[in-house]
Amino acid sequence: MNVKQKTIKNEVSVKGVGLHTGANVTLTFCPAPENHGFKFQRIDLPGAPIVDADCDNVTDTARGTTISQNGASVSTVEHVMASLVGMDLDNVLMKVDGPETPIMDGSAILFLDALEAAGIQQQEVDREYFQIPHNITYTEPDRKVEIVAMPLDDYRFTCMIDYNSPVLGSQHAGISSIAEFKKEIASCRTFCFLHELEYQLQNNLIKGGDLNNAIVIVDKEVTKEELDHLATIFNRKAMEVAPQGILNNMELRYQNEPARHKLLDMIGDLALVGIHLKGHIMAARPGHAANVAFAKKIKAAIKKEKNKKVQHVYDPSVKPLYDVVQIMDILPHRQPFLFIDKILELSKTHVVGVKNVTMNEEFFKGHFPGAPVFPGVIQIEAMAQTGGILVLSTVPDPRNYLTLFLKIDNVRFRAQVSPGDTIVFRCDLMEPIRRGIAQMKGVGMVGGKVVVEAEMMAQIIKVKDSEPTT
Q1: 71-127 per-position pLDDT tens digit
Q2: What gap in Å lies between CA 442 and CA 30, rounded to an integer?
Q3: Residue 400 DSSP one-character state
Q4: In the beta sheet, which residues pair with residue 340?
Q5: How far is CA 251 from CA 106, 214, 355, 451, in A?
Q6: Is residue 30 scored above 80 in pLDDT?
Q7: Cβ contact 389:351 at 8 Å
Q8: What phi, psi does 404 have (nearest 5°)?
Q9: Which value, in Å, is the radius of gyration of the alpha carbons in the chain?
Q10: Active site includes 134?
Q11: Rounded to an integer, what distance in angstroms lies between the CA atom of residue 67 and that of residue 144?
């Protein structure tokens, strides 16, 4: 049975201060449509720009994870992202009126409580998973970081931290399923060492820092004068070092709460892959930078697997969905610049077209006439026309529209195409069409062998208002 995508039923807001700016901030979780994913919106900026929660948009990992896009940034997103994954959601828009999310109590539990209060709404479209196909590893030898994702039909985590500290020591944490997130991980708070806290205070780096939202590990000898100074800064009557080696501002919720919080951070950072994962993630000494680098490695594996999936062998001799006459009812191109002969498949997200390469093409008269080769630029044009069929299928009167290509990236020509070959093009939407902009991944195959591939961006524009033909 396929799992359906989920969003929340109602808007819900949380308020707090930003850890680094100290500014009051409101974060509002909003329902979002199918295939929307997780996005932040900076409603305090002109135009209310959107920032996709994507590992490719990460711009800083120094003291949390910051994502940036469209001239806007949102900092400390990891706890929010972990709460979304822990609630098993797919599509949520998060409106924020400042440059970072509120730190709340330093964990994800208050975000998760708010999402539960908003209610869960099942949607109609099936959820897509990426099941780890083989071991994917990431290492940083100088920092002794090791992360591996292994195949598993669930989402399981194991985390080990070791700060070479006599107080904290080595700790382990794990969950056997993401369903355990709320009970075992969500309430675990961020932590820092006393020497880090002093440095950050001296450099004004945690304007919103408070002893209510972080565990402070005392990793050095500390005098009563220093404790009194901290008490004054944080408006406390007195500060002491608790038996566990932490400041007595709070009690640990778990003996291994720091390790559990590192696991929480890892879940939030890996949510920036942009798709639900199935696999067992094991990490030693992870941090935000390593988590994001590992997320990018998983995203690259997803892209590679998707490329394999589209290399289906099509039979170009089957009865087409559209023949060349029907294609001319959709595309404005005409001979000698119409390069698609058939459309075999068409859905809301993909299209398959056929180009028969024959020796009587006009360009063969001057393009290597002694050793004819189908020009690469025309292969891309044929791919683009195939994608144009997909884009124009989204409007009721395609004769009144044009598709103008804005960008072509990552073009690869992998094999020569010669007269007598038949190229089958498949174009898949990389994300839903928005505001008339379509992004597609195109692959051209001859006999099941990939000969060309590219990523294309096109815009659909209306050029006339003629009546449809009958």
Answers
A1: 999 999 999 999 999 999 999 999 999 999 999 999 999 999 999 999 999 999 889
A2: 33
A3: G
A4: none
A5: 14, 11, 69, 62
A6: yes
A7: yes
A8: -105, 125
A9: 27
A10: no
A11: 26
The CA–CA distances, whole Å, from 204 to 19, 20, 82 equal 11, 8, 27
Rounded CA gap, 87 and 81, in Å?
10
pLDDT tier at 400, thresholds 50, 70, 90: confident
Q: Which residue has the tokens 């989204």?
A: 394
Give 26's pLDDT tier (boundaries 50, 70, 90).
very high
Q: What are the tens digits of pLDDT across the range 357-392?
A: 999 888 888 878 888 899 999 999 999 999 999 999
pTM as predicted: 0.67
Residue keyed to tokens 């850890």: 19
> DSSP 3-state helix, strand, coil percentages of the chain (rounded to 5)?
25, 35, 40
Domains, the chain: 4-186+258-306 (3.30.230.20), 191-252 (no CATH), 324-462 (3.10.129.10)
Catalytic residue among 276, 288, 333, 350: 288
Query: 172, 333, 350, 367: which one is catalytic?
Result: 367
Binding site per annotation, positions for Zn(2+)? 79, 261, 265
Residue 350 is among the residues annotated as catalytic for this protein: no
Q: Which amino acid is at 337?
A: F
143 neighbors 163 (Cβ within 8 angstroms): no
Tokens of 370: 């002694």
Indicate the Cα dihedral angle 138, 69, 439, 291, nearest 10°: 10
